[in-house]
Design a protein that fits this description.
The protein is an alpha/beta fold. The protein folds into five domains: 2-35 and 116-149, no CATH class; 40-109, 2-Layer Sandwich (Signal recognition particle alu RNA binding heterodimer, srp9/1), CATH 3.30.720.210; 152-327, Rossmann fold, CATH 3.40.50; 333-403, Helicase, Ruva Protein, domain 3 (Orthogonal Bundle); 414-610, Up-down Bundle (Methane Monooxygenase Hydroxylase, Chain G, domain 1), CATH 1.20.58.760. 52% of the residues lie in helices and 10% in strands. It has helices at 2-8, 12-38, 46-55, 91-99, 111-149, 166-180, 183-186, 206-217, 236-249, 263-266, 276-291, 333-344, 355-360, 367-384, 391-403, 414-433, 468-489, 499-514, 536-560, 562-575, 581-585, 595-604, 606-610, and strands spanning 41-44, 58-63, 69-74, 80-84, 103-105, 152-153, 195-199, 221-225, 255-260, 300-306, 324-327, 440-444, 454-457, 577-579. The strands form three sheets. It has a six-stranded mixed sheet with strand order 6-8-9-10-7-11. A five-stranded mixed sheet has the order 1-4-3-2-5, with helices on one face. A three-stranded antiparallel sheet has the order 13-12-14. A hairpin with a 5-residue loop joins strand 3 (69-74) and strand 4. The longest helix has 39 residues, at 111-149.
Length: 625
């Protein structure tokens, strides 16, 4: 591009700029020349002036119009001498000059002074013009660079590259068809789509599908982050939005603008905004104008991507703007199987690898999670020097992805190992012995990530609804680790190992009460903003009751299956890791304690039983006060 400009020569605008610079430089030179050439003055004291008057050497004097200074010319001296009076010149001073028969003037000004003043004004004017021209040039150049900054891509991604998202792909295909074949929809009064909102958790394929839409439509893509459109200077954010869409509309066949992390620019406006909020409001307003404007046949398609759709301004979602909304989520078991096949197609797999079983063990995993799992399994196989990725490599990779890397440098004492074995053994039995819980598939006391051990359960199929008994069983499962610690260490000597369990159990219990109507009370009130409601103290009391009931249930369960708990602990201390559904199910074959034997165990651990109290279901939820 620069070579073509050089061949064309300097443009007219460039010549004007060079002319302005040349005039400015000439003005500077003229000013300093006049200043130095004519600056032949020197200062004279009052006593020296008096001596020169008496000696008759003064030939001419020019008083300033304010009477504070005078320029004195002496015989045989080419220089002009300036005298400053402490006060304004009085008639007595003028009488002295008249008595000495010296001509003087009180109004005239020397030509050199006038020339310098003119030069100063010319210099100042030229400087202002140059500054204005420079600012304009810088803004134009910055605008040009900003337009060029928006990276234009022409992706070759297609819908065949998107896996595990059948519903989302179908909606993407419809967007492309509406864009490429508007006539099929115009007869129903449907214009070309102006925008779409892709929302969902991170790693679910939102950006990938946006690129596939662009690739299928054969359009260039401007991929920007919402924060890139924001600026600290007033007015610059809205200008950036205008420049982005100006660049997008410069393509005759249309273009796609993908705004990632759209909540940065599309968040709700503040009516009392100041400072940065006011700038955000201006940028969002400009984006709203660009999205619909007055041209219903605009060829620019905007796709906004966000993880927080609730934070967006409602004006973005009205018809004619981001009216196509596509929700992304974790793929189901079939989608995970398809994604696993895609990411393993170019990798050597051993014969014992079962991708269907692996898909069942990765419930809740997104496409990005599955890609990470496959890459981690390949790394495990590479470190082991294996010729292919085996089932064991995938199991190790799954553990690493879900639980974190093994902390080989951590030295764990025998007592801490035993406490961890009881803790994880409690979790494992609570999952194994409750029919509402999925089967445990792996339990370990090997430190990984931030935990000392981990119990993983499998889900055979994806669930749409959560039943109340399942939610209560999950609470028992979460509290079983703390319950097992109390059985081993004593009612008042448990450890901090249950901190993560308590956090998750508290969150689940609060969700049950405030959103699902599954608390200990017979209440169906939805309290998403419970902490700001008059029910706040009652909600906290219900959470405590749910957790106490769950812990009491876990203690009772583990005391009834005390022999099975001891067997699990012994296996964990010997092998550190026990996995496999069939192997773990062997611990459930032990008969529970009953009768006098159970009474004796309960009496032995009465302090543990008394450490928590069950709370029976009560009446409706009542506000405080």
């Amino acid at each position: 591009m620069s070579q073509e400009k050089n061949r064309r020569g300097i443009s007219t605008r460039g010549k004007i700029r060079l002319g302005v610079v040349a005039v400015f430089l000439l003005g500077v030179v003229a000013y300093f020349v006049l200043t130095f050439i004519n600056d032949t003055t020197s200062h004279m004291s009052l006593s020296a002036l008096d001596d020169n008057l008496r000696a008759g050497r003064v030939t001419y004097a020019t008083f300033s119009h304010d009477g504070e200074t005078a320029e004195i010319t002496l015989k045989g001296d080419p220089h002009t001498h300036i005298v400053t009076f402490p006060e304004r010149a009085t008639d007595r001073v003028y009488d002295q000059f008249r008595a000495a028969l010296i001509d003087f003037d009180t109004e005239g000004r020397p030509v050199s002074s006038i020339a310098k003043d003119i030069a100063g004004w010319v210099f100042g004017l030229i400087a202002l013009l140059l500054v204005a021209a420079g600012i304009k040039a810088l803004r134009e150049q910055a605008s040009k660079h900003r337009i060029e900054f928006w990276e234009v891509e022409r992706p070759d991604t297609t819908f065949d590259d998107v896996h595990g998202l059948p519903d989302e792909i179908a909606q993407g295909k419809e967007i492309v068809d509406r864009y490429k074949n508007p006539g099929n929809y115009e007869r129903f009064g449907l214009p070309r789509p102006s925008g779409a909102l892709f929302y969902g958790p991170p790693g679910t394929g939102k950006t990938l599908l946006a690129r596939a839409i662009a690739g299928e439509a054969g359009l260039p893509v401007y991929l920007v982050a919402g924060s890139e459109l924001m600026n600290a200077y007033i007015g610059r954010s809205a200008e950036k939005v205008r420049e982005l869409y100006k660049a997008a509309r410069s393509h005759p066949g249309g273009a796609i603008v993908v705004i990632d992390e759209g909540e940065a620019i599309g968040g709700r406006r503040n009516a009392n905004a100041t400072g940065a909020d006011k700038e955000h409001n201006a940028a969002l307003t400009q984006l709203l104008i660009e999205l619909d404007g007055f041209d219903r046949n605009d060829t620019v398609l905007t796709i906004m991507i966000t993880n927080m759709p609730d934070a967006l301004d409602r004006a973005l979602l009205r018809p004619g703007r981001l009216d196509i909304q596509v929700e992304f989520g974790a793929p189901n078991v079939d989608g995970r199987h398809e994604t696993l096949r895609f990411y393993t197609k170019d990798k050597p797999l051993a014969g014992d690898v079962d991708l269907v079983a692996l898909a069942k063990q990765t419930m809740g995993s997104t496409g990005a999670d599955i890609e990470q799992l496959v890459e981690e399994a390949a790394l495990v196989a590479s470190r082991a020097g294996a010729a292919a990725i085996s089932h064991g490599h995938f199991c190790e990779a799954l553990v690493t992805v879900q639980e974190g890397p093994q902390r080989t440098g951590v030295v764990v004492s025998e007592e801490d190992k035993k406490v961890t074995a009881y803790h994880e053994g409690g979790h494992m039995l609570a999952a194994l012995l409750q029919k509402e819980m999925p089967d445990p598939v792996r339990v370990t006391i090997v430190p990984r990530g931030g935990s000392g051990g981990h119990t993983r359960v499998a889900v055979d199929e994806d669930q749409v609804y959560l039943h109340r008994k399942q939610a209560l069983a999950r609470l028992v499962w979460s509290m079983a680790g703390r319950a097992a610690e109390k059985i081993h260490c004593g009612a008042d000597n448990f450890t901090s190992g249950a901190s993560d369990d308590l956090e998750k159990a508290t969150e689940l219990a609060r969700t049950m009460i405030c959103q699902l109507g599954m608390g200990t009370y017979n209440s169906s009130i939805s309290l998403k903003t419970w902490h700001q409601s008059p029910y706040a103290s009652e909600v906290e009391r219900q959470v405590e009751e749910l957790l106490d009931n769950a812990e009491a249930e876990a203690i009772d369960l583990l005391l009834r299956y005390r022999p099975a708990l001891e067997a699990v602990v012994a296996q964990l201390l010997e092998h550190e890791t026990v996995e496999g559904v069939e192997r773990l199910h062997q611990f459930a074959e032990a008969d529970p304690l009953t009768g006098a034997e159970l009474d004796r165990v309960r009496e032995q651990y009465q302090a543990v039983i008394d450490s928590v109290q069950r709370t029976p279901a009560r009446g409706a939820l009542v506000p405080a006060g």
